[in-house]
Write a structure and sequence with these properties.
This protein is of the alpha/beta class. It has two domains: 1-39, no CATH class; 48-249, 3-Layer(aba) Sandwich (Rossmann fold). The chain is 40% helix and 14% strand. The protein has helices at residues 2-23, 42-47, 77-81, 97-107, 114-128, 145-151, 155-167, 190-197, 206-209, 225-236, and strands at 88-94, 137-140, 176-178, 201-203, 213-221, 241-249. The strands form two sheets. It has a four-stranded parallel beta sheet with strand order 1-6-5-2. α5 (114-128) packs across α7 and α8 (190-197) packs across α10 (225-236). The chain binds zinc ion (ZN) (2 copies). One zinc ion is lined by residues 56, 58-59, 61, 75-76, 78-79.
Length: 258
């Protein structure tokens, strides 16, 4: 009897350990190496490449400026040809190996344990960029209700909440709502994405948007079609400025296939 109880207890403990491992892995989620805290080993954490100057003043795309050009004034070819509706976009880092793994664990595996890791990253990034977002109200790019129901998880909201906390800014999650379900955009071009997302957003209460400076938050900036459409609707309803912040940025040539 005692043996059997022992077996059951052992089994329960092993099961519990498995659940814990899933929520708080014992090894680095990228390289499986030893971790000291959170989700990453020190080497993988150090491997996350922040996007720093020089980059486009408007859309934030990193620029390869090999000649002496005043960095603050550089505007990329895309922004000069067809400017985005948002005033500025910035991303924490390149959407490549480590950052992509973190976002995937968060978004598709719903590992809330990623949040403290994200907190560290955001603090470091905003320390390097003082004054970021001051005077702005943080708002996530909303998910469609059906997607939210299916996924049970709104990653943009959780990232926005973390950004607001770190920057000590107000968070207003309900400025926009998603009124159109859109097809997955992974394989679409910029034009196709823009068409796909058109008409996807509406404001909930125009009086909450008018005159406001909004910091729109999403997980990844790929072509900017989604945040651009959201910014367009906010501007149309009187938002005075729209800035965008994403954790990851897809940059051609940075090994960031989706
Ligand atoms: Zn690692
Ligand atoms: Zn640009």
């Amino acid at each position: 009897m005692q043996v059997r109880t022992g077996k059951i207890v052992g089994g329960v403990l092993r099961g519990f350990r498995k659940v814990l491992d899933f929520i708080f892995p014992q090894n680095c989620i990228v390289c499986d190496g030893k971790i000291q805290e959170h989700f990453l080993c020190p080497a993988c954490r150090a491997d996350i490449e922040f996007i720093r100057q020089p980059h486009c003043f408007q859309c934030g795309v990193p620029a390869d400026l090999s000649y002496a050009y005043p960095h603050e004034e550089f505007v990329c070819g895309v922004c000069r040809k067809s400017p985005y509706q948002f005033d500025q976009a910035r991303s924490l880092g390149f959407y490549d190996t480590v950052l992509r793994t973190i976002i995937h664990h968060f978004k598709y595996r719903r590992q809330m344990g990623v949040l403290p890791e994200m907190d560290l990253l955001l603090k470091k990034y905003f320390e390097e960029n003082p004054g970021f977002g001051q005077g702005f109200t943080v708002s996530p790019v909303p998910l469609h209700f059906n997607k939210m129901k299916g996924r049970g998880f709104d990653q943009a909201f959780l990232i926005a909440r973390q950004v607001a906390k770190v920057l000590k800014l107000p968070l207003e999650a309900g400025l926009l709502r998603r009124v159109k379900e859109t097809s997955p955009q992974a394989t679409m071009t910029r034009t196709e994405r823009a068409r796909n997302i058109k008409g996807a957003f509406e404001v909930n209460r125009p009086e909450l948007v008018a005159g406001k400076s909004v910091l729109l938050v999403d997980d990844v900036f790929t072509t900017g079609a989604t945040v651009n459409e959201a910014a367009k609707v906010l501007k149309k309803n009187g938002a005075s400025q729209v800035h965008v912040f994403t954790l990851g940025r897809v940059v051609v040539g940075k090994g960031s296939g989706l």
